[in-house]
Amino acid sequence: MLSAPIPNLRNVAQDRRKAGSRRSQIQLPYCADMADPALTHTALDDDAMARDIAELIRIPSITGSRAESQLQHHLADRLRQLGCNADLWQIDLPTLTSDPHFPGMEAERTEAWGLVGELTPPAHAAAVHDPTVQNQNLQPDDAPTVILNGHVDVVPPGDRRLWSHDPFDARDATGPDGRRAVFGRGACDMKGGLVAILVALKLLRENGYPRRGRVLVQFVVGEEDGGLGTFATLRRGHLGSVALIPEPTSCAIIPAAAGALTFRLTVPGLSAHGSSRLDGVSALDALWPVWQALRELEARRNADAGPLFDGIPLPFGISIGTVRAGDWASTVPDRLVAEGRYGVRLGEDVDEARAALVDAVAAACSRDPWLSDHPATVEFFGGQFASASTPVDHPLVRQWAVDSA
Prior knowledge:
alpha+beta; Alpha-Beta Plaits; five-stranded mixed β-sheet; 16 strands; globular
C-alpha cells in the first residue's frame, strides 16, 4: 500500500491559502494516462472544503459507534451525487471475524457497513446502462484500477474539559500558525482526507476522467482498532492496481508503514489490607520492572530503524494505553491489567515480533524476587497487522515524489 496526501488537510485541517486568497491547490495522483497538466494544479474552493470537513466532523463517528454506520450512509449519498456506482453493504461480522486472516478489532460492534464507489470512464459508464450495446466489457484487461482509501472512524475525544468547544462541533478559525484551520475531533485523522477524496472525484468527473481504467473509493470503518473495514472490502473483491491513502503526512510520500500489535499484560500481586500493606505485594509495584523492560526493548528495536525512517525518533514505539488495578481503595491490588500497542519493524515477521515482547517480559520476571515465582503474562488481542512497504524506486513513488515536491 502507498500513502500519499491529496491534498494536505491536517488536524488542525489547514487549507494552505495565501493571504487574501480564497483558492488553494491540489496535486492529483499520476497513473498511466491520467497525467494531465490541466489537473496537476487545480484551483479549489477552500470555503466549500471547510464546510464539507465540518459537516463530516459533526457526525461523531467514534470507532464502534452507530455514527460509524451513519457516516457510511451519508458518504454513499455523496458518491452517488458525484456519479459513482456505490456498493453499500452490511458486513457479516460473525463470518468476517472467524476468518483466519482477520486482523482483529477492539471496539464492540453490533453492525458495520462497507462502502465502495466506482468511477469508470464516461463512455464505459454510459454503455453499461445502454441495452443496445452488446459488448459491455469495454475495458482492456490491463486497464489500471486506482484505489483511494479512507477511514470514517475517529478515536474518542478524551477529556472534553480540555477542549475549548464541543469536539464534534467543528470550528472554522485561525490556527496557531496564523493560517485558516478547521478544529474538531477527526479533522486531521481523517475527515480532511475523506473530503480530499471527494474533491479529487469531482475534478476527475468534471474533466472526463478516468479515460481508461477505474477509480475505486473505499470508505472503511474500524481503521482505528485493527482494520476490519478494509479487510471486509478486500474480501468482497474490491481490489486494485495501486492504492493511495490520504492520511495526514504534510504532503510527504510515505511508501512504508510499521505494523502494530495490541497486547495485554496481566501482572499478579498479593492482596493485603492497606493498613498493613507490607504483608502484601502491590501489582502496581510489580509492573515497574516489566515497564522498564519494555522501555529497554523499545530502545533496542528502534536503534537501527533504517533510512526510510530517518527523522522519525520512534517509528516502532511500545506504548501502554490503559492500566487497571485493584477493586478497593483500602486493599493492596492483587492484579493489574495493562493494554498497549507494540510497533512491528519494517519487514519483521509478526510471530518473531510477538516472541521478542514475550521474551523481554519473561526475562524481566526472572530477575525479580516476586515475579520470578509469579510471572506476568502476555496476550495479543485486537488489532494485529504486519508492516508494509512499496519499493522507493517504484515508478509511481518516484512520480508522486516529483509531483509533490
